[in-house]
Write a structure and sequence with these properties.
Largest sheet: 4 strands, antiparallel
Number of strands: 8
Distance between the termini: 21 Å
Length: about 100
Amino acid sequence: MHEMVVDSSSEIFIGGEVWNYNKSSNDIFILKINESYAYNVTWGDLNYEEFSGMILDTNDNIFIAGSSTENLPETKYLTFINKCNIICDLLYFQNYMA
């Protein structure tokens, strides 16, 4: 799944999943594009991360939802919500184990 949102300054954010060949698993990415530059941020570890969606609040903070697998004694699924500011610095995160 991939998604695109536009903030109040007409900057474009694209979120989704990317295959990490070094780790043989999915990571989540956020790509920010405007008229003068572009950059991206990825999240992930050795587990499989899945992008579920993103929204912007009235202050142009980005909320990213997704899930990950955790290899504990048995495979567990972890749902998360990340909040990032306009330059994709992580402001808040919350994990929920299922």
